[in-house]
């Protein structure tokens, strides 16, 4: 039995992430999806809470023929102990999946096997592009799996992103 670990911020979880997981599913029996920067929310780069991202991802994974676990992982101040922190929060795993150079280095220094996972249609399926489109409320739905669109609508996520964009620009909450 092989269990993999795939970490990302998933702000939001998009069709590119889902394609990566479908590909990983062919290589493992079980997969832990780590929600990175779980302590972050309500900013332009990290608009969604860990709980909201758990809902988005759990619903998207429901149709896959794969045992999955979705685990929030908060950031910590010391990179040197981050892998131990991940291991404390996650079911044990045999292989990690990432393309982030820092994440790859930290896992390799802890003697954990790391596989790289190429993203798809990167010109469109990229978190920053999607958050920009959401801020302008333009053509963002087509880039996200249906359960993610439904979750964002349920929590009024577009209004939130537009408000935090105002906050980030002025350094204080928009009084409206
Ligand atoms: P990230 O900062 O969320 O993403 C970095 C970039 O890589 C983004 O543009 C992301 O695109 C892209 N990306 C994500 N998955 C990819 C893939 N399979 N192929 C190509 N590009 C991909 O970093 P992350 O690697 O996704 O997540 C790492 C998490 O671990 C972060 O939350 C980070 O804070 C955390 N971490 C914490 C510590 C610490 O606390 N000391 C140390 C190391 C890492 P999208 O925006 O489209 O996803």
Task: Report the biggest beta sheet as strand number plus sense, adding barrel if it closes.
Answer: 5 strands, parallel
CATH architecture: 3-Layer(aba) Sandwich
> Are any ligands bound, and if so which?
NADP nicotinamide-adenine-dinucleotide phosphate
Can you say what the CATH homologous superfamily is? HUPs
Q: How large is the count of helical segments?
A: 7
N-to-C SSE string, H for helix and E for strand = EHEHEHEHEHHH
The share of residues in extended strands comes to: 5-15%
**What structural class results from the helix and strand content?**
alpha/beta
* Radius of gyration, CA atoms, in whole angstroms: 16 Å
Total DSSP E strands: 5
| Cα separation of the termini | 54 Å
Residues in helix, %: 40-55%
Calculate the mean pLDDT score and round it.
94
Which features does this protein show?
alpha/beta, NMN_Atrans_arc, binds NADP nicotinamide-adenine-dinucleotide phosphate, five-stranded parallel beta sheet, Rossmann-like_a/b/a_fold, Rossmann fold, 176 residues, nicotinamide-nucleotide adenylyltransferase activity, 5 strands, Cyt_trans-like, globular, Nicotinamide-nucleotide adenylyltransferase
């Amino acid at each position: 039995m092989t269990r993999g670990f795939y970490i990302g911020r998933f702000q939001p979880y998009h069709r590119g992430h889902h394609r990566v997981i479908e590909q990983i599913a062919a290589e493992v029996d079980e997969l832990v999806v780590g929600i990175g920067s779980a302590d972050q929310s309500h900013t332009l780069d990290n608009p969604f809470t860990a709980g909201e991202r758990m809902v988005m991802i759990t619903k998207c994974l429901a149709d896959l023929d794969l045992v999955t676990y979705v685990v929030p992982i908060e950031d910590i101040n010391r990179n040197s102990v981050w892998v131990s922190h991940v291991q404390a929060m996650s079911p044990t795993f045999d292989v990690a999946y990432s393309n982030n150079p820092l994440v790859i280095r930290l896992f390799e220094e802890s003697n954990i096997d790391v596989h790289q996972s190429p993203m798809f249609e990167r010109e469109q399926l990229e978190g920053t592009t999607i958050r920009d489109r959401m801020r302008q409320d333009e053509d963002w739905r087509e880039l996200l799996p249906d359960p993610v669109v439904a979750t964002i609508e349920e929590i009024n996520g577009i209004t939130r992103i537009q408000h935090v964009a105002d906050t980030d620009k002025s350094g204080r909450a928009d009084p409206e």
